Amino acid sequence: MTDVLAETNGVKQVICISWGTKYGAPFINRLYASVKRNITPPFTFTCFTDSREGLNPEILCEDLPPLGIENMPTGTMGIWQKSRLWGETLGSLRGPVLFLDLDLVITGSLDDFFTIGNADDIVLARNQTTPFERLGQTSVFRFPVGKLVPIQEKFRANPQAIADQYNFEQRYVTRNAPGGIKFFPRRHVLHFKQDCRWPFPLNYFLAPSLPSNARIVLFPRGFHPEKAAQGIFSFNTEALSPLSHLMAVFDKKKRPRKSAWKHLRHFILPTPWINDHWRE
After folding, report:
1. What is the pLDDT of residue 231?
2. pTM for this structure?
3. What is the pLDDT of the chain when averaged over all its residues?
4. How far is CA 273 from the centre of its chain?
5. Contact, 14 vs 106, CB < 8 A?
6. Which of 116, 126, 61, 51 is CA-nearest to residue 93?
7. Strands 136-144 and 123-126
8. Which of 68, 125, 148, 270 could be stapled to 231 by a disulfide with Cβ–Cβ 3.0 to 4.6 Å?
């Protein structure tokens, strides 16, 4: 067994990936600044991207690793572009790397993410939306460069079939990672909707809270931090007052495809602590 940082001469290696126009420079720069504030040097921050425009010059940039398939899977909720990072090499990096999604919020020290387990371990955050399934969450994901080659090769052989079988890339990794997986401590990585917001009816009176032991807060499935900071729930388009949101339950045009109960639960007050942490 080898210490996590022994193979990197004590350097903590953080990576992210960006493609297309959904996120881009503002998200990458914000993530880098958040990492820098919450990690003990030395560290590196490498972004694998198809565009370097507008990026902080302190960020190390690498081209998107080639995958060798013509079409990514369709009809799946998985973020299968992450499979680009599972190859034998990863730019100039060697040894364990910590992958972070672009739309998470770092609220505490990242140092412990490099002390848990051994250098050869694959360590994921727990997926808290499926409590009865031992499922990892690849939004926060540490792995040794090159160890995931077998699952990349299996995916490349028939990407659509793999996506159809597992739906999410995190389920595929959890079930097929060579040597199995380990988990980061449950309370280190929290899910905003499950761990921070209050249940009905308290959500109309109390702003989402930030537990003191949280290190990272996840905002999955398109629920971006800037919306939560403004008090806009998930895919809603505007922030409403508690009374306006309550009254909208009687107007089906204002809650399309939502039951009355779901509408009542899908409300949050503005969350000021997000902007305290999610900034350059």
Report:
1. 92
2. 0.94
3. 92
4. 18
5. no
6. 61
7. antiparallel
8. 270
Which residues on neighbouring strands pair with residue 18, listed in sequence order?
Answer: 49
Distance of CA 162 to the CA centre of its chain: 21
d(CA 43, CA 114): 11
Q: Averaged over 145-173, what is the pLDDT? A: 96
Cβ proximity of 144 and 8 under 8 Å: no
The token pair that represents 110 in the structure block: 């990242």
- Mean pLDDT of the region 95-102: 97
Per-residue pLDDT of 17-39, as tens digits, reads 999 988 889 999 999 999 999 99
Q: Which two tokens stand for residue 243?
A: 């009374």
Q: Domains in the chain, please, with CATH?
A: 6-184 (3.90.550.10), 189-277 (no CATH)
DSSP per-residue string spanning 19-63: -SSSS-HHHHHHHHHHHHHTSPSSEEEEEEES--TT--TTSEEEE
User: Residue 210: exposed, middle, or buried by beta-carbon count in 10 A (0-12, 13-18, 19+)?
Assistant: buried
Neighbour count for residue 131 (Cβ, 10 Å): 10
